[in-house]
Structure formats: structure tokens, C-alpha cells
Protein 1
Amino acid sequence: MNYLNSIYRTFFISLSLLFVINACTELEENPGAVQLAPGTLTSVETLEALITGMYRTVQNEARWSNFFIAGYSGDDITTFSGGNKVGFREADWRAQTPASDRLVRAYRGAYNMIAIANTAINAKEAIEGDREIIDRLIGETHFMRAFAYLHLTRTYGEVPVQLNVNDPQILRKASFQELYELIEADLLEAERLLPDVYPGIQATGIRPSKGAAKAFLARLYMHWAGFPLNESDKYGLAATKSKEVIDGGFGYDLSPSLRSMWTVGNRFAHSEGVFTMVFCDEVCGTGNRTTGRLGLPLEAKGWSETFGEIAFFEDMEAAAMAEGTTTRFEDTYVLEVLPRGDEPNGAEWRNFDIEPHPILRKVVGGDMSEVSVVNSTNNAINRYFMRYADVLLTYAEASGRSGNSSTEAWEALNKVRRRAAGLDPNIAAPSIDITSGDLAELAFTERKWELAGEFERWHDLVRTNRVVEAFANRSPDEAVDVVNSKTPETSGKYLYFSPIPQAELDNSPQLND
Amino acid sequence: MKNLAIRRLLIGVLFLCVSNLSAQEQQQVSGKVTDDNGSPLPGANVQYADSNKGTVTDADGYYQIVVDEGATLIFSYIGYKAQTIKVGSRTTVDVVLSQNALLEEVVVIGYGTSRQEDLTGAISSLSSDDFEQQPVIRAEDALQARAAGVQVTKNTGAPGGDVKIRIRGSNSISFSNQPLVVIDGVIGGTLQSLNPNDIASIDVLKDASATAVYGSRGANGVIVVSTKKGEGGAKFDIEYFSSFSKIPKKIPLLSPEQFAEISGIDVVDGGTDYQDAYFRTALLHSVQLSTSGAADGLSYFVSGNYVDQEGIVFNSGYQRFSLRSNLELQANDKLKIGLNLFGSREHRHNVFFGGAGTAGDRRGGILGILGWDPTKPIRNPDGSYYQLQSSVGNILVNPVAVQTELDNNRLQDRFNANFNLSYDISESLNYRAIVGGAFQFVNNENYAGIPDGTTILSPIASYLSRRSDNYQISNILTWDKQIGASQLKLTGVFEEQAVQWRSASGRSGEFAIGGLKEAFYLLELGTDPSLEADREKSAIRSYVGRGELNFKDNLLLTATLRVDESSNFRKENRTGYFPSVSAAYSFQKLLPSNEYLDNVKLRLGYGEVGNQNVGALNTFSELPLGRDFAFDGDNEVVGLGTPTFKDLNLKWETTKQFNAGLDFFLVDSRILLKVDWFRKNTVDLLLRKPVPLYSGGGTFLTNVGEVQNTGVDLGLSASIINTDKFQWNANLNLSAVKNEAIDLGGQEQILIGAFSGSSSGSSFAIRVGEPLGQFYGATFLGTWKTADQSTGQVPGTSKYALDESGNPVLGVIGNGTPELTWGWNNTISYKNINLNFLLRGVHGFEVFNQTYSSLMFPANSGSASHADYLDRWTAENETEIPAGGTNLASTRYVEKGDFVRLSNITVSYTLEEFAPFRSVQVYVSGQNLLTITSYTGFDPEVSSSGASGSDGAVSFDSGAFPNPRTATIGVKIGL
């Protein structure tokens, strides 16, 4: 027993020594082992990764129709009255309130881009490496920030300007003037820093070039010249900038086929993209969710999310017949069998069961034989934030509005018309070309047909202050409210610009009007 | 009202049972004093009341005494309840003393023990006796409704789902309010894998004077679990039970014909009742084996347990194996060495979000089932699915197909080793060491053959592997000395704890080979699998001092100080000091001799405790990963996000609590009434402040604000009837808590969603001056009528209270945090028959019925499926049920959640000495057989917001998994 006791005692003493001398716990944290500290934003590689992250941030939002919520207000696009499409319907009829559904994505997405852009721009002095690459990346960042603020102000009007990183300061709304000046400054910096041709991309527009910066400056000046600031001398600047794009050798050209740009097979087989979002459906799962099945009606087991408006369809059909631009009309609407569900014929859309509407090809997909694309709500069809046809027509319209209807300006308009007629855009076609009349208005109308279904028409209507006029031209067959004859608003404080979303007002009440 | 009535009834019954006997002339009295089992108690005191005359029993328990007319004798024995008996005319008075459970019960208070009588803090104690009459497979079930101030909410009916425990309300807004669990001295255990049959006692430390010894981890209260030890002769016990569980009710939905008519489609083959297709009667088997005993200084308790539980949703379930070996060696009269080993495996099959969701996609599962197009059969005659999608209903992928083709397995293995040693250095000085290691291994395998969602996607699979290692070393020195009539006890602790977890995970989809089943083992076959790996480390070093003074059994004083250094904070903010003081005063000697009121004890305490549970690296900004992008539409390159905003000065959240309690020992201490009032203020809240969207959105963690909880806990335990053949023990407990956000760091309100990824936006508001858990939304006023058309309103759409500019007024529309909870547990034995029933009630809260909302207004385009839609507004019949238009979170979906539930009822029949067995017991039991509530959903107790999420968002039913009704039969055999 004594023997046992002494064993226990030895055991006990050694154990207690072990425990008392056990102050070995490490209390200092070592973050470097498992995460990337912001201090690492000193290399070109990190900057590149940050900008890559910015694209992903846009993609996360722009892959949803909500990102283009204002575009639903255009007279080219409509939606469905049922279920979860109420948010689109309220945009379509300009009946939005801060609490409207689907209102927050464009706001959040744009500011998330801006937060990353601010991080890169504020760190630019600390970055070491190849100057040429750094300039290109910083230029790209300024371009992206301008894109985001332009998307914000085109959607929500006056919004706050945040240029700092993680700054807790409470911000108020900036004026249109301040916003435009900021966007202009960013685009001018992008224009200065970006190369003529962005290296290593598969098609123009996937990343911005100097030409893209000029093209977006032209778009900005068109807004600046129109509603709400109406500084019409900016039309001249818009004409100049778009002309520089046309003359500059940035590699842009009209695609021979309009519809093939909305296919997966030919998504890189053209040079019309000025700024394009590409999607990665299969491998990454981050496909485009604004296209494919969601533009199909119930008969084709679709989502009934985005349709064409009836009066617009009828007007475009008449104009196409009269002007010989039926190729473009057929590229804009699906007029054949929709290969899904009951396989209804797109040309017979008037026979569809509930709220019949024309089917937009730019939404459903350019090629009905790409069945997996048409069947999907998560596909790899490109989103064109801007394409070269837009630049050509901006040049024509801006020239007309600034009183300089030059031959080159008419030629820009005619290039678009020739393709619309199924002809080579670069070879004169007397039967299609026009060389006289009100160039500005002709170009404005041409934009209406050319950009139909691309969420651009609404912004044209706002900047030219023709919202009420456009709403007046409404088909009697158009859907009305479930019960009574409620139609789009023609007045009210959110007629031109959407309210700042409730989610933001909840925590930032100073943004209430 | 109901509570009051019950209490009156209880007290009335109590007093009936205390019999008064009348006295007569002087006489000699003799008799025998025995214990409950009939064994004689030698040396028991037999005292002549009001004098110091008396005698003691002999070796066989016999006594003899001469007393005056009308005498009263007091029979007492250490560890047994004293009995005061009026002799009357009797000459023989045999007395049965029962063990004094209420007074002498040892309470584990953290780094030591105390007698119930000596407590100065607010502690609720349970022993295995309190819950052994209910078949339980989880320790949380044992705790539910049995301890005052402890609210156990079965947030989900999912097998193996998380259970929510709150002690005296919620302190933290952004962080979990789950209490700290300490098992056999090892901090940070979990109740969910613990075998309830291994539990000897559960002590819940509620007030800060009790929890302060756990310092920076004590703010949410502490649950101290002690597992069983062997004693006496070798015993072998077997228990088996089996249960049948069913969904409590069905939700009234449109019939296939009604649905078809509204949607303008056809019914095929009578359609399908999706509730019948999804829910089933689920079976549970539980087997429990244990052996225990003590011999030659070695005591042992060895147990094994196997539970196999089916979910009430088909293709889901839970299995648990556990083994425990508790050994303790009394090496000599000074040294005791113990080793407790515990191992468990849990396997959860198709249980998501800890059971808070019924599918990997929040829109799926129960929400998916209730909203799905019922007009078609599920399968074709050849076994293929009739339709995977429908353009009506909720337009999700067919939820029965999703569930059928789902294979999600969470394997969670735990191994705990706990070595402890106790050595009496001298008569008054003891050294104790606890060396604990807790290791956890988790594998999460997921394969979705038909992924949830709104589109048909190709199968996806993922695999996660994670291990965590937790070490603790505690050195405890105790000095315990009798000084005159007083007792002084000093305790010093030095402790270190380190926890580290490592994980790796991968996922892929678009498999090169079709028809795979368990593709989580074949991620390489998928296209471009993605990978992640991570590690997290944290550590705490602590010093604790405690002094306890018992002054002549009248005045008890306790003071503690804990100093914690946590690695979760920067050096300047690392060290926290957590003091407490408490006192108790016993009025026994001041009270006149009274047969009803034995003693009254007053307790007062104040203490400060903390919350450091923010996780590692929360003061270091990072550039988040996972923003990869494919410029070529095919190959992603690495992308980073914007730096997260971090507060370098982050520190503890501190909870300061004042407690005042009164203990009444009544009727020979057969009744113990404990009443506690508390107020606790949590300051320097660890709050995730919302960042404006214009600054990038999200939240950032900082110390601002204050939350207050004020409340009363009442616990009444009574041995109402205690005769040879008939016993009735009852325990009533009741807790009321008032919660209020005092300060939110300058903001008036913070709006939050119900859970991350919640589609319904901000449904909750935390507001200054109001309690946590406020529902936020519009006020629903029915429908706009045809007559309102002139004012620009659309008839048939929802009518909300509007402001001047015509926008719906958003504000507080209800609260999901219960104000009052109670439990009433009864055990009644008559001869061999035993009846246990547990009633509990939860009152003063609302439930947000998002399930109903999604069935009236599907979140995706589609159509309603709830039967109420039949009565929707039409031009001919202008009801208050909207036919269309905008659907906001509103008072329309806020329902009263109050309920009273028969949690358990068990009837058992026991045969002692039923050769060759020591005892045999058979029982039948039912859980949740009856629930009285006006809530229209499945179950007012469940919530989709999870057990450990923010308590700003509670009682949110968005397809929450209801608690089933269960019937159980079982047998216990003792050898």
C-alpha cells in the first residue's frame, strides 16, 4: 500500500508540475496565415484580383432582370401581372414606391462596385509594378465607377456620392450636376489611362478600352444635354466623343447579324460590344438570368418575366414593312415555334392564354435551336451594356441636335439601317439610306427600333422628356389591372426616376425626399 | 388567470394533506425510525419539542421516550428531512424519514460544490429523478419546463435539430444567446450529443453572482452538467423504447379541383395530397445499456446508447451512438483520480440549418410542399416523375422529387476525455486538476440529384470535412476551514483553454458521368470543382478567486473575481475583470416555531459577466475571397471583394446583473418556494451595425448600445403527498422577463431580416425603448373596395394604413419574444403505478406566419394554394381577403402565439424484485399530445430563424418544421 502511495504521489507531483507550468497558450492572433490583409494591396496581382472581383460583383447583380428595373418602364418592354412580377409591373407602370419589390438590386449592385472601385483608386499610390499595367487597371476602375454612378443616376436620379472606403460619414443626396461632373471626371481619367485595345480579351467590350470611355462620355453628355438639366450645349460634346470612337481605331464594327449576338455559339464572334458582361453558366453557375426561358409565356412553360409591348410591336412591324427593315423586326421578336411546353408559335402570340404579348428575341435567345439556352434561366448569352450601333446612333442624334448634320452623321445612321435591312452595313444602299430630314429625330426613332428590348429605350424617353407621350401610345389590347382600368402613371414624383429603396431609407432616413 | 388557479389548487391540496392530531395525557412512547426502504436508522435524534430532552435510536432504529400530554416529537437524521409529529394518544409512533433532497442536495456551482441550503446565488437544480419518468433522447428535453428562468424552445421538430435555450431572456443582439455548457468541469460542451441517461444532475447558474466564475463566457447563463458515478453494488440496467411521431395537424389547402379551377388547368388522376406524400408516421428506437457500481475504491459507470429516429418528413432521420465510461479511483484517503471518456457519433440525414429549414433551399421543403401544384400525380405509372415543374402554385421544382433525390449526411463524431485529480494536501487544503480534451470531427456530404430552386439544374454535390480540438487545463486550489462557528472557504483557479478548428470543403456539379448517386465522393468527375480551406484558433487564459463565508449558518457571503485574457481581442482590450458579490441571510433563528414555515432565506447578489464569443480574427480587416470571374466565359480567375470594416478596439460585451431572491422552506421542508427578481443590463453590446448600402452595405461589428432584462423567476417544489403507498411530487416554475433595448449606439432602430438570405427583407426592428424581436411591417386593413376606386385604389388589393404621400406606414406590428413561460411537472405514484405529466405554457408573444403569406401570395410567380383563397375578394363578394396586388409583411400575418402544451404524460408500472430482475418497469408515454393555441400554422413553438441566430429575429414561421405528436412505449429492466 505504501508502495502504491508513493507511486501515486510521484504521479501527482509530476502532473501538477505539468499543469502549473502550462502558460503556453498563444494569445496573439496571426491573421496572415488564413486571410489576405488589405495591406497586401500593393501589387499588380492584388489590384488585378480586386478588379476581377469588381466584375463578379456586377455580374452577381446584372445577371438578374432587377438590375434593369428602370428599363421595364420603356414602351418596348412589359411584364406579367401575376405572382412575383409585381415589382416589374410597378416599374412598367411607373407606380413604384420605396417599398416596391425588385427595386434594391440595381442600387446595391452599383454601390458594391463603387466600394471596390474606391478601394483600388484610394490605394493606387501604394501599388508597385509595371506602370503600363497599373495605368490600365486604374483606368478600368475609373471606368467601372463611372458606369456604376451612371447606372445609379439613370435609375434613381439623385443619389449620394461615396468616394471613400469604410467611411462612416452620413451622406446626403448629390445633385444631378455633381453626379454628372463626377462621372465625367472618372470617364476622362479612364479615357486618359486606358489603352486603345484592351489586351487578352476574346471580343471587344469584355473589358473597356479608351473607346469605351469615350462612348460612355457621349452617353453621359446626351443625358446632360437633356432632361433634367437640359444643358443642350452638351450635345456637341456627345457628337465629338462618339465621333472619336468611330474614327479612333478601337476595333468596333457592326455585327453582320443582329440576332446572332444573342446566341451562346456566336457570343464572341463579333466586334460590336463596347461594354459587355459575359456569363459563365455551366462551369461557374453564374449565368445570365435575364434571358432564356424567363421571356417565354405559360404555354411554353416560361417565367413570363419580360415581354414586348403590343403597340411597340405593331408600330415596329409597320415601320419595318414601310422601310424595308424586316430583318431587324424578325431579329427583335420570335415569330416561329417556341420549342418548349406546348410549343406555341411566337407569331401567334395574340392567341396566348393570359395577358398575351410578343416574345422578345433578345430576351429568349437569338437562336431557337440552342434549346438548352432557351430552356434555361441561367445561360451564357451576353449582356450588352453598350454596343457600337448605339454609338453610331448617338453620333447621328447628337450631331442633329447640335445643328451639325454632317455626311458622316447621316452615314452613321445609315450603317445601322442597312444592317436592319439585312444588308452589308458598310456598302451604300440607296433603297434604304436616307440623307435628308430631321436627323436628330430620325436617329432617335432608329434607336427606338435598334435598341428595343435592351432596357435602353426608357432612358431615351426620360432624357428627351417624352415619357407621357410614349405612355399615351398604348394598345387597347395591353394588359390593364386585374380589376379596373388602371394604366401607367403620367405624373408623380417617381415618374422619371425610381425612389431610393426602402432598405436604404430604413437605415439612412436623411435620404428621404 | 390560469396560473393563479393552478397555484390555488396546488396549495389547497397541500394543506389538506398535512394532518393535525390532537394531544392527550402523559405517556411512554416507543417506535422505530426507518428510511424509505424500511432500513432502520440507528442514531436518529428523537427530540422532545421545546426542550432539550430527547433520545437517539438504537442500532435497530428503536427508541423509547416518556413525554407530557400533547407532546410533539421531532425526528431527525442527517441527510434526511426532519419530521415533527404530535404524539396524541398513541404509544407507538413509527416514523419513516425520507432523504432530504431539497436541503441537502449538492449543487455544482462551478469549480466547486455547495449545499442547496448554502446558496447565495440564483441557481436552478435538476437531478435525474426529475426527468427519469419521461422518455427522453436529448438532454434539452430533460431541462424543458423544469427549471425556473430557463426557457427551452424546441425551435424545430427536425430529428437532431437545434434546441434553443435562453436563461433569463436575451442579452446580445448580434450574437448567440445560447448558454455556456460545462460538463464535468470542461467548459464549452454541448447538450445535443449527450446521452440524457448519463446525467446525474443539471445545475443552471442564472444570476451574475453565480456565473461570474465563468467570466467572459458566463453572460448567457451557465448549464453545469454532472454525469453519473457508480456507487453501491454492481447494477446493470437496460432500457428500450419506441415512439411513433406524427405531424400535429395539416394545413388547409385548396383541393386539387379548387386549385385547378382557379388556375384554369386540369386535374389528372385526382391529383396529389402533397402533405400526405411528404409527411409520414416516423418511428424511433432507443436502446440504453448501463452498468455501475463501486468496489475496492473504484467506482464505475459505463453506458452505451443507440437512438435511431426517423424524421416525420420522408427520407430524413437522425442516429446517435454514444459510449461513456466514468471511472473514479479513491487511491487513498487523500487522493482521488477520475477519468471520464465519452464518444458519440451523430448522423443527420437531410436535416438543414440545424433543422430550422426543411430543405437546402429556404423556399423548398415544407414551403415547397404546401405551395405546390396539387393537380397532378407525382409519378407516371413507369415510376418517372409526372412533372418536375409547374407554371402554377409556387413554381418551384417538385419538392417531393427534390426530397427523394436528396442525400445529405452530416456525420458528427465527438470524443471527450476528461482526467481529474483531487488531492487533500492537508485537512483543509485541497488541490484539484481537470485536464480535458474535446475533439470533434464533422463530415458534411451533400448530393442533390434534383437541386431545389425554380429551374431544373444538373445534380450538384459537395463535401466538407472539419475537425476541432479543444483543450482545457484547470488547476483548482481550495482551502476550507471551520473557524469557530463559521466556515471559510477560499478557491483559486488558474485555467487555460484553447480551441482550434480546421476545415476543407469542395463542391462541383455538371458531372461528366450521369446517373451518379453519392457524387460527393466523386467531386473530381464534376466540372471545375471549387475548393476552400480554413482554420480558426482562439484561446483564453484565466485566473479566478472566490471566497465563501458561512457565518453561524445564518449569514452567507460569497465574493468572486475572474480575470480572462482572450485572444479574440487586441492586446489593449484583451483582459477582462469580472467581479461578483452575494450574500444570503437565514431567518430561521428569528422565526417563531411554526409547523408550516421552517425557514426563510434572503439572497442578494450583484455581478458582472461577459461575452467574448465573436470568433477569431474579428479585429483584422481582410480582402474577402470568392469573387472569381471568367472573362472568357469559361475559366474563372481569382477575384477579391472590398475590405471588410473592422473595429480594432473591439472588446467584451458586459452584462451587469442584480439579483434578489427569497427562499421559503415550508411544511417540514416538504415545500420549497424560491422567488427571484433580477435586472440585468448588457452594455458595450457587440452589435453588428448596418452599413448604408451607399458605403457597400453589410454590417460592421462594434461595441455600442445597451439591452436590459428585468424579470421574476418562481420555483415551487413540493412533496404533496408522501405516504408508503401514495406519493405526489410536484414542481411548478414560472418565469416572466421584460426585455428592452436601452441604447443602439445613437440609432433609433435597426432593421434586420429573419435569417440570412431571407427573401422577405427586413421583417424585424430593434428599437430603443422596445423589446427585441419586434415584427416590422405595414398595418393591414383588409381590401380596397369598389367604392375606393375613385380615390385611385385598385379594388381587391391589400389595403394598408397609408401616410400622407400614400405610402404604407411601416412600424412595429407584433413581438416574437415570449413574456411569460411556465411549467408544471407532476409525479404521482400509487403502489407500483407511476404517473408523470408535464404541462407547460408560453405566453405573451406573436408568431409571424410567413408560411401563410407565401401560400396566399407565392413569392415566385404562381398562384395561391391556401384554402382561405376561396374566400378572396371578388367584385360580387367584397371580402377582406385580397385577390392580388402588392403583398407586404403586415399585421395580416401576425398571429398570437400563446400556447399551453401537455409536453409529456407517462404511465409506468414497476415490479421490484421480479426474479431474476432487480426491477422491471413498463411504460406508455405521449409527448405533445395536446396543444391549446389559436395559432393557425403547424406549431407556434417553431421558428425558421434558428436556435443560435440573433434574438432580434424570433418566432418567424417560414415553413418551419413542426414538433410532432409522439406516442412511446418502453421497458426498463434492472439486473
Note: The mean pLDDT of chain A is 90.
Protein 2
Amino acid sequence: MIKPTAIVGQIILYGAFAAFIGYFATSPTYHQIADDTALIKLSINHLGDRECRKRTPEELEKLPRNMRAPMECPRERSDITLEFDIDGQPALHTVMHPTGIAKDGIATVYKRFEVKAGEHLLSVKMNDNIAKPGFKFVKKEKVTLKPAQVLVIDFNPDKGGLFFQ
Amino acid sequence: MAFFFLWIVTSSGLYLYTVLDTSIAGVYESIDWLTNQQWYLGGVLRSLHRYASDAFILTTLLHLVREWAFGRYYGFRLYSWVTGVPLLWLMFFSGIGGYWIVWDRLAQFSAVASTELLDWLPIFSTPAARNFLTPDAISDRFFTVLVFIHLGVPLLLILGLWAHVHRISRIDHFPARRLALGTLVALLVLALARPAVSDAPADLSIVATGLRLDWFILFIHPLADFTSPGFIWTLLLGGTILLFILPLLPHPAPKPVAVVDAPNCNGCSRCLVDCPYAAVTMEPHPDKPGHKIAIVDADLCASCGICAGSCPSSTPFRSQEALVTGIDMPQLPVSVLRRSLEEKISRLEGTTRIVVFGCDCGANVKSVESTDTAVMSLICAGMLPPSFVEYALRGGADGVMVVGCREGGCEYRLGDRWTAERLTRQREPRLRHNVPVGRLCLAHGSSHDSATLAKELRQFRIRLETQAAERPLPYHRRSASS
């Protein structure tokens, strides 16, 4: 026969165990960013440019028939320079390097920026061929961000280059 | 207990899997339907699945800390320790993946945070976090893959658990019935009082915040936010490496393992049955055709002596001057045990003379040694052949007290249990029926229980003095000197 005190004690202990599990399974609430903050994700995947050269007829003649590609392109891709400014202040100025041992892979960047919700002037400039001066792709736009909104800055040549989403 | 929680997680998970719709639109709705429309079954099972997962992680981590604190990670336990370390990764991997399936804001947060953490490692050419960049980045295939991962990884975990425990015998897959029932009821009450519910559906165009985080499983994300991915990976990989090399650090030299004496081994297999670490196997006897002999695997032997306690040849009533048993411990052979017992009993004084058999890992029995109390500390209480109790009583002791580790805390897992079963005549070798149980006392305690042990001994002595239990026939072994 189990003593009543033992039953009460067991109820307390089982209850404490369940309460411990139940509390930390959902609490305390976690806020990753402040309530008045929005998030900008700058995420770009792009193959750097490369300098191709047109082969002369003489050069093509020397090649086997099945290898007579009119353009000669190096395998290595160019670094990509990227500048991202928020409200005129530099947020990220970086050089993206091509991946792969032969440096023939895509260059990538993924960064998060927490900003106060509201109006911001965003400027993104990208040059995918460092052999050429200046920036080939530029996007400058004033955006209004709501609290907790995620604004993605991406690049897609089919969508006209840099774009905000 | 961790096994028990895993069985709850597995069985509840099987039901949840059957109703899960693995499309982007359907996955959230199917779980939401389960939670709200079918709350009495699906909702309760979902809550059980979550809370039992948390309890599984909690008990597993407690198990890890306990084994480490007791120094149970080197020597013959190295294999179990090393195979247990990868299970921690599988456990958290399963848990985090399980949260993704719901595809609510919490899942979104965890998926983004996990992939951002992974991207710190130079393993992906394209950042994995790009898979969760925008709402249209997710496809149905993602959930199908996720479900397979959430089934496959737990299966790997169960396979790993099998490897983790397969070198020990009589594994506790299930806790005591009362404990299991109490725990299940507690979880059921929790599931009804605080059912697991989804957050709002995932929306990658906003930051998931104000989250009711499961801190048992998802604590790593806030930790990464407060520190850095580099810190987290250093912590995880450094911690894992540390756990792996822990058994390789300098430790006390291993104790001598059990030794089989072929002429005295009759192949009864009791040592095989009782060995807690499956270190004994039976093979054909080299000298006795048709008989078997015990073989000890030195790598598995814990040097606990439980096999010596189970051997029918370990009886002190045998007349040889040099008692040799079938399987014995070189550091404390039964012949030494018998001689020491005889000497100590002969020196006892007083009206109520008691012999206390203790264990080196449990209560400090030396603390109760006195002129009327002889103390014999064994490697493990399970090393005590029951015939030694009879031998002590017939040799002049008025009572025998056997002290094991605290209940459930036996250093060698089963020593306490086997001792109790042998002395209560439920297990071979049994205490003979001519031994009056009134003159025997079973006690338990850890090294911190000296005061309790002294009190129990006092009570036992009073009981012996006030209750006239019958006395077995005296027995004095003939020796060369007598």
C-alpha cells in the first residue's frame, strides 16, 4: 500500500518535471530583432565576367575540326566588386572571389543588415569584371520598410541585373 | 528513461507521418487540422511527440553528464562512450528537422538560422540560406526531402543506439512500470493542458520574431545570434572532439580481469548469464569432452567480480585448503575472501557479532567496523556468493548484512540486483533454505551514506537481539592447521 504522502510527493515531482518541460518547450519568447527593425538581405550569386577573344581564321585552321570554337575564353573568372550603401553610408564594400580551385565557379555574398523601419536610400553597385573600371550594374532606390519586413537584394541578369524584392 | 521517451516519440511520430501532407500549402494545414480538429488524438499525439522529444534530449544530456561525473567513459566503457557521441548530433539534427516540417514562423526562423550557420563553413559553393530567401524559393520537394530526413535520421539514431548498447547485456529499454506510467500520465496531462500548436504560417518576406522557442532543441539559434557562427562551430566541433578524446586522456590503470580456471569450470553458463557487459562467452571445454568452458573477453570485462559471485564453485564449504573456483578475480580471489572471513569472525567479540559484506563503490562499510562487527569490502556486492552468508552464520556470526550501492546506482549495473535476487532465492546461485532470513539484512547506500549505514546496522543488531531467529548448524572447516 502506497502512503498518501508518497502519492502527494510523486504528484509534485511528476508535476515539476512536466512543468519544466512544458515551460522551456515554448518559453521564454524569443525576439530575433527589435520590434521597430527591418531586415535587408544582400544575397548575390553571379559568375564573374571573363575576357574572351575572337580567334583569327589562321588560328581556327590550326585547330582540329571539332575544336574550332570561334571564341577563346579563359577558364578563370573575374573577381566581382560590390558596394552597398544605406542612406549614403557604406554598409558593405567587398570583393567577391570566384569559387573553385580553377577559380571558375560563381562568386557569392550573403549578408544581413538590420535597419530601423522607415524610409531608406539603398545603393548597390556591382562590377563583374575588374579589368574594366567603374560599375557595370547599379541600383539606387528609396525604399520604405515596415517593421519585421525582409527586403532581398539579389542579382539576376534575366531580371535586368540588380533588383530589390 | 531516454529510451522510453524515444519510444513515445517514435510511436507518436508514426501517426503524425500518416496524416502529413508534404506540399507547401498542405503541410501547415494538415498539421493545423490535426492540432485543432482532431485535438483528442492527433493534437495529443503531436504534443506528446514534442514534449517527449524535449524529455529525450534532457534525459540524454543528464545521462551524458552523469556518466562523465562518475568517470564511466574509459577502459571497458570506451566503446559505449565513443559510440554515444555521434548520437548527440543525430538527436539534435532530428529535433531541428522536426520543427522545420511544420513550416510555421518557428520553422522559418530555424531553417534560415540553421542554413546561415551552415554557410559559415566552407562547404557550399552557393549559400544554403538562399533556399529560404524569398517565399517562392521553396518547393514541394523540400518537404518531401525533409520528411525523409526526419524519418531517416531518427532511424540512424536508433541504429546508433543499438551500437551504443549492444556490448552490454540486459539493457533497460523500458523503465519500471510505475515510473513509465507516471511519466506518461505527466506528459499526457501536459499535452492536454498546454497543447503544442503552430505559429502563424511561414512567410519569408518578414522576419519571424516573437517566437515561442523550444529551448531544449533550438537554443543554438539564439546562442548564434548572441555570439557568432564561428563561436558556435568552435563550441560544437571543439566539444565533440573533447568528448571523443576524453577516454584517451590518462586514467587509472585497468584492474585485472576475471580469470577462468579450466579444471573448476563446469560450463554451467551462470557467469555468462550474469555478466552485465557480455564479457563472457561459452566455448567447448578443452579437457572435458561434451562440456563447455567460460571465456572472458578482456576488452569487455569490467573487473567487477559478478561472475565469481555467480559461479557454483565459489562456495567456501569446499574442503580444499586453497579454494580455487571456476572464474575468479586475481585481485580478490574467493580463497582470500574465505580466509579473511574466517580470520575476522574468529576475532569478533561481544554478544551480537555481525559480518558486513560491502562494496568498494558503495557505502563505506569500513566506517562501521568494530570489535563486534567484521567488515568485508568486495569489488562489487554482486561478487558475493550466497554461500558466504551461510558460511559466516555457521562459522560464528549472529547476523550478516550485505550492503550494495544505492538502488539503481550500481557501479556495475546489475550487481545490486543479482545480489538481492540470489539472497532472496530467486536466482542461481540461491541462498540455501537452511539459512534463516531473520539473520540477514540487505542494505543500500553510496559513499555519502555512512550515517544511514550505521543506523541500519544498529537497527539490525537490535532486531537480532530482540527477535530470536533460529540459528543454522555450526560449521567449522577442517584445515591443515586444525
Note: The radius of gyration of chain B is 29 Å.
Protein 3
Amino acid sequence: MSSIINYTLHLADNALILGQRNSEWCGHGPVLEQDIAITNISLDLIGQARSFYQYAAALIGDGATEDSLAYLRTEREFNNCLLVEQPNGDWAQTLLRQFFFSSYQFYLYRYLLNHPDTRIAAIAEKSLKEVSYHLRWSSEWVIRLGDGTDESHRRLKAALDELWSYTGELFLPAGYEKDLGIDVASLEVDWSKKVKDIFDEANLAVPGNVFMQTGGKSGMHSEHLGHLLTELQYMQRTFPGCEW
Amino acid sequence: MEFIRKFYYGDIPEDKSGAAATGKSSGHDWPLWEVFIRSKNGLEHKHAGSLHAADAQMAIENARDVYTRRMEGVSIWVVESRFITATNPEEAGELYEPAVDKIYRHPTFYNLPDEVNYM
């Protein structure tokens, strides 16, 4: 498959998998209002995934649809980064994952506004408003928990220890990103500054150099993705072509 | 005998207020906020409901997520419910019933010229 298809799938998979993860909170949020907030974010992300899948399906042709791309590909065919497939953990872990990813998506989509592929640029432009809100919402939660009680700070710190090693992959270009000249490494300066600013307010230290996990963007996933896909794809696998 | 007692929204006993008392049944101690939404520019803000939030910023965002998901609004106000002074339901008789038999306060006895439409 061509690099543009792989890259479009990468963007779609990132959004779909995080949307699916967040949707696991539906009915289980810590309070009603935040249950609605996190599932709203889910719906935004799944909407972004649909736009990218529709484009990828058009590029692939041969009967591919947004549904076949979401529901009938196997684990190794997913190009999402490792960060988005990590389990929800507690509320701190969920929102820290959201903060890391939304801040990345914010700078990425802003960068993609100038992408020569107009369809990708258009989806990025439409999604940027949503992502700006996700970033604002998750930033405030990081500050609220980090600068909150002993327990909230402890939980946020534990989430940081759990998730930090999955952030390095975001800025290491995969083959398709290199082919297309998508300079993800250039986003790291802005991203790091954003993380530092928010962490300063949250009384949290940015971790030093640690080993960073990689592989998700080229289909080598952590054990968690298979379980997630099993749930996500269950209906289409069990009742092929079913509609409702 | 106490003639005047100032009631606040959250002070009115739960069984009489019709709204959940702050932080009791909700399972956490975040204060209650009242939400006002302007549906489009030029119209006034209208009371949309209430919700719990830890601070004003969170209340705005919760209101955005709870009350404007289907394009219901272009502007949101929130105010903590305890800052709203409310009438006591027990005083409804003396406050509102005296107006019941004073229909002459409605301007319905004037003959309007046809040129004055939609008055």
C-alpha cells in the first residue's frame, strides 16, 4: 500500500482507537457531567476517524469502505501509536493519556493545515477546533489533579510513570511519514513546551531521558490492542455485513 | 414569630425545593451551578438547568458538554446556586395569590387601532 494510504490509516487509527478507549467510560464516569464530557470527546475522535477512513477507502478503492477498514483489519494492520491503545486505568491515567495525545494532535493538525494533500488539510482544519477543546479540557484536569489533593497527585504521578514511555514514538517518523515528508520530529519542541507549562502548574516534573517504546505506528502493538479490537470488531466478525 | 427569613437556593429543604440539595445525593461534594444559555445572538440567556462542578471553568465546560451538544447555544453563563436568593415555597400564598383577582392589571381592556399590530 502506498504511503499516503498508510498515513491516512495511521491518522484514522489513532482517532478510532482512542475514541474506543474513551467510550469505555460511558456510564462509568466519575460524575455524570464528566461521563458526558469524555464520551463527547470519544464521538469527536470517532468522527475524525470516519473522515480519514472514508478518504483512505477512496484511495484504496476495490470495494473498501470506512466500515471494512475499521472492522475487518487485523491487529498488525493497524497503524495507531502505542499511546492511544493503553488501558484507561483510573481517571488520572485516562485524562493524562488524553492530554498527551490532544497536545500532539493539536500541533500535528496545525502542521497539516499546510499539507499539499487538500483532503487531509481539510480534515485537519475541521478537526482542529475539536482538538483545541480536548486540549483545554485535559490540560485543566492535569492541573486540577496534579495541584489537588495528595491522592490526586499520587494518582497522576502513577499515570505519568505508566504512560511517559509511549510518548517518544509520536515524534519518531514511520516509513510512510518519511516518504511523505511529514516532519513529526519538528512538533516535539512545541509539544514539550506545552507539557512543561502544564506540568509546572500541576506541580509535576517532566521525566528525564527514559527508554521509549516504539512500533505501534508500523503495526507492532502492545498486548492491549488485540483485546480492544476483539470488542470493537465483535459484531462484524460474528455477523458479517450486519447493519443496524 | 419570624416574619422575614432570607432563603438561599440550597437552604430550602430538599423536599420543598424541587432541586437536589448541594452535595448530598450526588455522591461528591462539588457545588451546584445554575446554567443559563443564549440560544442565538440577540436573544436573552435562559435558565437551562443545573449541574455539579468543582469550579467556574469546569462548570462552563460541563454546561457546554451537557447543554449545547446539539447546537442549543452561542453563549453560556454559570452561577453557583448558593448565590441565588430564592423565594420560599411556603410563602407562595402571600407572595403570589394576591395578584390572582386583579385581572385589571392586564392591559386587555384597551381597544387598539388596527395599525398597531402584534401588541
Note: The mean pLDDT of chain A is 96.
